[in-house]
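Chain and backbone:
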Amino acid sequence: MTPAFALLCLFLAVALSTSFSFTLPPTSFVPRNSSPRPPLSLSLSPSPSSTVLERPAPLYSPPSPTASSARTSSIKKSNRKNRISGWELLIHNDARNTREHVARSLVLVTSTSEAAAYNIMMGAHKNGVASVGVYVREVGEVYVEGLGERGVEATLRPVEE
């Protein structure tokens, strides 16, 4: 028999033969949106069925999820009408830049393949404007700025759902 097991058996024998109680100290951790709770009380008596573990009633009860979900669903429905799913990056044809320069700028700024950049550039050359892709607004703004620094005229247009 190991010394740790013998010590555990001795502790249990003493705990079951005598009645004692102790209180755990309160923890220093306090969860967000709550207040500290009083310490947990534990009392042991000779019979195992009379062990009592009590905790006071909670001081905060969260609101029911059904009340808040009804309110948020009406807000979501009203926002769906005007919702923007992304921003389309457009390049425009101009007389200043060569076609090779526009294609190379698309490859360097937007990381498109050379073949895709060539097809986009030819679309702008033939139609006057071509779509590079649909992006998040911040990414599209970075691309417009990068293309503008290289002399390529680019704009963003919102795309609605």
In short: The helical segments are 3-17, 65-80, 99-110, 114-127, 137-149.
